[in-house]
């Protein structure tokens, strides 16, 4: 009630006080209900985050056998093994996914250099030769196969609708190569956004050839609130609560297309959605 009604009207004061008391009487239950609702919401989000965080150590332990190093082996070179990036196992346990740029370098024919995956941890690691079945340069994906040794545990693919902004994620790989041995490192964050892979520029004349190519077949990428490094290329992106595969970390394709529009490229990390991996595996008639 406006306070001006009682300024010069003493006779109205009892009425105003009565109406004010009545208003306060009815507003108290509503205020209490609002406080309870706000408290419930505040408690719900930390509880969900806490559940995911408490599961993370177990999830990392579960998915680690599915994460491998990708590199080359040349017995005439010192050191003979060179780690180039990260990969992970899908399907029947013999299919490896990584980035196409990780396996883009021509191999030496004179020394019988081969692509290999590195399995195991630390000094107990071993290598297995792999064949590059397919390279999809447009999406910077590569499919490798190994036939020696035993199959490895494979990732489960998450439902496509599971990936959305705000979802807590993690990725595991070898960000500093094998400097300290074959020890994987895990980084965490969230999916910060889902957007087209290339940012259009102000006019057609400002578009790079790479951006023109990508705009013709536009597809979405995940922008991550997490830090990845060059050795993380090919690392699996997964749900921290379930360990299900969401996509693959990429540090090259997006940088030279999406961030070509920026005068000062950011440290933002990106991932290629799992749907692109499934599409490629279906083309090769491989299980996933």
Distance between the termini: 67 Å
Overall form: globular
Order of helices and strands: HEEEEEEEEEHEEEHEH
- The total of helices stands at 4
Name the CATH superfamily classification of the largest domain: Trypsin-like serine proteases
Computed Rg? 27 Å
Number of E strands: 13
Strand order of the largest sheet: 5-4-1-2-3-7-6
Name of the top-level CATH class of the largest domain: Mainly Beta
| Biggest sheet layout | 7 strands, antiparallel
> Would you identify the CATH architecture of the largest domain?
Beta Barrel
Structural class: alpha+beta
Low-confidence stretches: 1-23, 41-45, 257-265
What number is the mean pLDDT?
79
């Amino acid at each position: 009630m406006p306070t001006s009604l009682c300024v010069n009207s003493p006779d109205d004061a009892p009425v105003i006080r009565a109406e004010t008391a009545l208003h306060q009487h009815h507003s108290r239950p509503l205020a209490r209900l609002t406080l309870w609702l706000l408290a419930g919401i505040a408690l719900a989000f930390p509880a969900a985050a806490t559940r995911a965080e408490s599961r993370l150590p177990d999830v990392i332990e579960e998915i680690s056998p599915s994460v491998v190093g990708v590199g080359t082996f040349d017995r005439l070179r010192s050191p003979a093994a060179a780690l180039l990036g990260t990969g992970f196992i899908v399907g029947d346990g013999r299919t490896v996914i990584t980035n196409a740029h990780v396996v883009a370098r021509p191999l030496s024919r004179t020394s019988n250099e081969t692509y290999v995956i590195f399995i195991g941890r630390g000094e107990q690691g071993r290598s297995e030769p792999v064949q590059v079945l397919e390279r999809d340069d447009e999406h910077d994906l590569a499919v490798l196969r190994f036939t020696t040794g035993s199959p490895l545990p494979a990732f489960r693919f998450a439902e496509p609708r599971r990936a959305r902004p705000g979802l807590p994620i993690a990725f595991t790989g070898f960000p500093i190569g094998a400097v300290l041995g074959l020890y994987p490192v895990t980084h965490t964050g969230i999916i910060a956004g889902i957007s087209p892979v290339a940012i259009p520029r102000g006019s057609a004349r400002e578009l790079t050839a790479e951006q023109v190519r990508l705009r013709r077949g536009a597809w979405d990428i995940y922008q991550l609130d997490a830090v990845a490094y060059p050795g993380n290329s090919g690392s699996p992106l997964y749900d921290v609560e379930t360990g299900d595969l969401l996509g693959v970390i990429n540090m090259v394709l997006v940088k030279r297309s999406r961030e070509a529009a920026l005068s000062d490229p950011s440290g933002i990390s990106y991932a290629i959605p799992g749907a692109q991996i499934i599409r490629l595996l279906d083309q090769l008639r491989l299980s996933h």
